[in-house]
Amino acid sequence: MASQTPTRIVIIGATSAIAQEVAKLYAVQGARLFCVARDESKVIAVAADLRARGAEEVAVYVADLLTRDVHADIVAQSRTFLGTIDCVIIAHGVLPDQHALDHDVDSTIASFMVNAVSVISFAHRYANVLEEQGSGTLVGISSVAGDRGRASNYAYGAAKAAVTTYLSGLTVRLRQKGVYVVTVKPGPVDTPMTRGITLPLMVPPRVVASDIVRAVSRRTMVLYTPGVWRFIMALVRAIPEFIFVKLTKF
Amino acid sequence: MAKRYESWGRYPDVQPSTVVDLAWTQDLELQSRSSPILAYGKGRSYGDVCLNSCGTLVAMEQCARILEFDRENGIVTAEAGVTIQDLLRVIVPQGWFVPVTPGTKYVTLGGAVANDVHGKNHHRVGTFGCHVRALTLHRTDGTVYVCTPSQHAELFAATIGGMGLTGIIATVTVALIPIASRMIDEESIKARSLREVIDLTMASDHDWDYTVSWIDVLASGSSLGKGLVLRGNFSTVSDGTLQAPWNEPLLGIPLQGPTWLLSKPTIALFNTVWYGKQFGRMHRRHIDLEPFFYPLDAVERWNILYGSRGMLQYQCVVPLDGGEDAMRRILSTMQAGGISSFLAVLKMFGTALSPGIMSFPRPGLTLTLDMPLGGKRMFDALDRCDEIVHEMGGRIYPAKDARVNGAMFRAMYADELAQFRPLIDAGMSSSFWRRVSEE
Predict the structure, then answer these.
(1) 3-class DSSP state for residue B359?
(2) pLDDT (tens digit, 9 = 90+) per residue, B361-371?
(3) Which three-class secondary structure state does DSSP give residue B58?
């Protein structure tokens, strides 16, 4: 099958650093984009940037994605604006401070609502839209953190694990219907979300973005970005729990 | 490993106490800071004008959105962290080019304004600031100004070339110039002496939009100042190159160079080869804008070739009247001080006046040299060069400086400083400013 460049794109969490870079790469190719984000002035700036870079048209939808009532309307509005949807990128999320969450169950659940429940809500809704179309690609931004629970970020990791597993199931379900699912697992990315944290192998968002664009055109099912994380996480997953608990660094 | 904030010369080596990685200009909050603030772009100025030892640096790199591009009239409004490189990828395919570009495309628009940068076409169009239509400026008292040549005009004039001291520049609106092709018709002419370089430059400035000369600083006696005069114009033929795919040759430098790599013998060899590589008197080329405007950008981080000690760049301007003699004296002073430079550049500034109060260019001759950082002998020789420059009524360029004596700087910019000081934001400062502004 020939690879195709999507031209009608929905981006949920359009002000995230990774989403902005992905959107720029599609904008220069003249894409039509439907951008959803919480902060109005920021998403307007993003939309202006995408238009200046060559996007054919950009629509903006401002909503707090924790309010699940608006999800159906977002899907409906994006279908009206784009007609056929070539690609949906679900990129929103928060990185909570695990130490603060350790003694705060409400915040733990709140972060799970954003990082897992609202993501699954969009994945579910758009999966059905794409299935009905019989075409399109669904991209979900998960994380290497979802591959194994660690003391330093298990609330975030557990939410990402839920997203990964959900997308994995969608991948299998939709593959026969002409719909492709890409599960993106970035390592640490230098974004406002990771501000103040310096981590090994940290990459700028544009590196992750160009990997995502390539993965969409190649219909990659699981994308580790940068690629070295595929091997690192294979090792991390293989470590037996009784040894893993002693590796306090993790 | 924490990220280090350096200038291009990697000297002085000073770090801020706090860094704010600004992702959105909407989130700028400057009021509650206790230490002095300075915006930081790509760190392409050479000395300490972009550094803020023990202060707060606001890293602007992520504020890189193009907010409006009027394709019909060639006017762009963008966040201050947008680089010329990024802008070119958007505007060149639409038939536009930046009105003024320095020798690297890795500068931000905020930096281009704050240093009021100039290029090979200064004799035609003046500085970058001459083409700025509007700026948004965030002051540390929480106020935000939209400055234009007619609105908050004083603040506009202080911000252009204002070294980032008037507040944080959040957005820049600039008028572009139209191009029909990305190709340049270039001529390179061999000149056997400084006199010839200057004569050829004066003769070329009428018909050529872009002129610059490379001179061999090590040549002395009658061939002192010998070099190559380079001149170019954008091709006016619509040859379809504007839409051509963009190939940026990029060669990485894997390691910091050993200190002998760019030392006097290797520099002498380089200069001889560079001058000698052109056999004929004149050489014509039809070349892409990348190698014409940005030859050094092909090598990413070439500054680390200078090794761990870093480098200095010296740039001064002197009036044309008596300028040739001043250039001779400066070059001889440098030679006597043991200073050798790989790529010394001579350019004639035109009469177009920048709106910027502290803007560096003045009509006359400007000389630029970079040199591996040396000891006291080098610093003394540069002090003597400053004296020659000042005596001639000239000045040095803050964006390149890491060493000028404060009293000398204040003398060179005496009238301008009187106008500039009241417009500075009291919450902003830089290592450069603390070094030169007070007794």
Answers:
(1) coil
(2) 999 999 999 89
(3) strand
> What is the pLDDT confidence band of residue B253, given thresholds at 50, 70 and 90?
low
Same domain? B188 vs B172: no
In a domain, B49, yes or no: no
Same structural domain for residues B157 and B278?
no
Strand partners, B312: B371
Q: Which of residues 174-203 of A touch B (CB under 8 A)?
A: 191-192, 195, 198
Which member of A39, A49, A191 has the closest CB to residue B66?
A: A49
Residues with Cβ within 8 Å of residue B293, at least 6 apart in sequence = B101, B103, B105, B119, B120
**Residue B119, domain CATH:** 3.30.465.10
Greatest extent of chain B over all pairs of C-alpha atoms, in Å: 63
Q: Which of B152, B179, B206 is the last residue of a domain?
A: B179
pLDDT at A1: 42
Query: CB-based contacts of A104: which residues, under 8 Å, 6+ apart?
Result: none
What's the CA angle centered on A7, arms A76 and A134, to 5 degrees? 60
- CA–CA distance, B101 with B104 (Å, rounded to integer): 8
Strand B132-138 and strand B144-147: pairing? Answer: antiparallel
Confidence of residue B297 (pLDDT cuts 50, 70, 90): confident
Residues of chain A found within 8 Å of residue B62, distances taken between Cβ atoms: 17, 192
Same domain, B102 and B175: yes
Whether the CB of B90 is below 8 Å from some CB of chain A: the reply is yes
